[in-house]
């Protein structure tokens, strides 16, 4: 039996219009609600996992850009530019050629990201305890710089062996090895442990300034966006809006990172590709390379690297903060303003 007109009218009056979510739900501010205590061992461990994902995945995704950049640093006349390089490599070797060195890239930078982000949070907490909360708040930028430098010092020890293998694989004129393990064995047989770590000092010179700029610029940019652009405390914005701030601040920081660290990056690429003269020390080899390169040569490949590092840094912060949000932890930087009494 069909319902009467009166019944349909009564039923219709009790219903709300269908929407996927209400405006209030769409604009729901994100407030951290994790069971993980900030600055606990579990917190540092969680940050380390997020850092491994952020650095490993992004560096692997940008392997083609990194490979072309390294080749242009070793031989600046090899390609006319990044797009010419893409065209030549993909035509000759296909997708496999573009991802040459992908295995040491994802392994090395996952280890580096684990150390970089996990120890950054740890050293921020440690150094704040040394100087006290008042001094830490007053000299926040110095705290960011000190913690990030300390973290990167450790992270580069984890990265260096894989960076050596990556650069040799990507810049050799003939295939360096037929497999990842084959490359490891070849370096070990030729140079032993020194073959994996001869680029450590230049790597520190590249990565420590890079990371100091990356973390300090990011944290200060996040603070500036919430204070001067959005003008409300962070916890009054949605999860999507907070992660948008993360991405924007990350890209801005990445541009500065690329410029600051590029000369040392060029040296790392050349150092891992060059052969030592008999009795020549690593330091002497580095000085010889810098003399041969000259000022212009040191800056070769800067354009591709700005694009690479800007994108890379933005994506790393986005992945890292997205992982933290999924565990209920707050996004990085831009703490909510204290409530007035």
Describe the structure.
The chain is mostly helical and 341 residues long. It has a single domain, classed as Mitochondrial carrier fold (Alpha/alpha barrel). The protein has 14 helices and no strands. α3 (41-61) runs antiparallel to α14 and α12 packs across α14 (302-326). The N and C termini lie far apart (65 Å).
Describe the secondary structure blueprint for this structure.
Blueprint: H1 5-13, H2 23-26, H3 41-61, H4 63-74, H5 82-98, H6 102-131, H7 133-138, H8 140-171, H9 180-191, H10 193-197, H11 200-229, H12 239-273, H13 282-298, H14 302-326
Helix pairs in contact: 3-6, 3-14, 4-5, 4-12, 4-14, 6-8, 8-11, 8-12, 11-12, 12-13, 12-14
Structure summary:
Solcar repeats lie at residues 42-126, 139-224, 241-326. Its main location: mitochondrion. Helix content is 75%, strand content 0%.
Task: Fill in the keyword field for this structure.
single chain; 341 residues; mainly alpha; Mitochondrial carrier fold; 0% strand; disordered C terminus; transmembrane helix; mitochondrion; phosphate transmembrane transporter activity; MCP_transmembrane
